[in-house]
């Protein structure tokens, strides 16, 4: 645990230093307020989606893993073998869009890979030793990190991300605190890059993004829990 904390602290320090260096070159950032707002909106949506995924994954595992004695393959684990890591990736990508130039996303993705790939492989080896063929079969069906598009479209969201699992962990606090942090970082960034900011505009933009996320979630859970697209193959003559 201490080793992980040291590594994550180093990464955080690196991110802070890199952010400071990027601020020395304002031309790297989009000069258009419109595109800056678009990046901020998409960024906060990714942060919220990542937080919600982490909530669902941690809560579902807490309920069904029997204190880590059983292999969890349902819920969010039907989409990806590592929903917690995917949630962290989405959150990180969101903050990149908010704080860094948007074209830095590939750099972040590479840094994320360097940080977590070795750890994921190690965890997979551990689970293979414990659960054997059962885990190997699960790995063949479910991707390591990014879900398959077909699965995302056809999944029943109420089964994959059950609400009762989402609200029983401390992760739920992130739905409030991460947007607050995003507002603070955006205000600071605009003051550095653009020489000033409209705080009310920033807050309004992020409140709008949160409203879109919430309304979209309600619609998906209540009206369209399962998006099923059937493509009929045409018969050849």
The gist of it:
70% of the residues lie in helices and 0% in strands. The chain has ten helices and no strands.
How does this model look, in words?
It is globular, with a radius of gyration of 20 Å. The protein has one domain. 70% of the residues lie in helices and 0% in strands. Residues 1-7 and 233-237 have low confidence and may be disordered. The protein has helices spanning 2-23, 33-64, 83-99, 105-131, 133-141, 149-154, 157-160, 163-166, 174-193, 199-222. The chain starts with a helix and ends in a 15-residue tail after the last helix. With 237 residues, it is mostly helical. It is built from ten helices and no strands.
Supply database-style keywords.
globular, mainly alpha, disordered N terminus, 0% strand
């Amino acid at each position: 645990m201490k080793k992980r904390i040291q590594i994550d602290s180093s990464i955080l320090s690196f991110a802070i230093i890199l952010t400071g260096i990027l601020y020395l070159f304002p031309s790297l950032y989009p000069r258009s307020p419109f595109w800056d707002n678009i990046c901020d909106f998409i960024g906060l949506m990714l942060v919220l989606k990542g937080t919600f995924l982490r909530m669902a994954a941690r809560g579902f595992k807490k309920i069904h893993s029997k204190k880590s004695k059983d292999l969890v393959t349902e819920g969010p684990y039907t989409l990806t073998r590592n929903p917690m890591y995917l949630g962290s990736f989405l959150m990180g990508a969101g903050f990149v869009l908010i704080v860094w130039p948007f074209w830095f996303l590939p750099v972040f993705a590479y840094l994320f890979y360097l940080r977590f790939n070795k750890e994921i492989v190690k965890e997979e080896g551990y689970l293979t030793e414990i659960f054997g063929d059962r885990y190997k079969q699960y790995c063949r069906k479910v991707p390591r990190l990014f879900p398959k598009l077909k699965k995302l479209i056809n999944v029943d969201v109420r089964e994959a991300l059950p609400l009762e699992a989402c609200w029983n962990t401390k992760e739920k606090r992130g739905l409030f605190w991460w947007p607050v942090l995003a507002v603070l970082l955006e205000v600071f960034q605009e003051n550095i890059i653009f020489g000033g900011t409209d705080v009310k505009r920033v807050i309004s933009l992020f409140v709008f993004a949160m409203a879109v996320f919430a309304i979209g979630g309600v619609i998906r859970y209540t009206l369209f829990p399962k998006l099923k697209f059937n493509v009929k193959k045409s018969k050849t003559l």
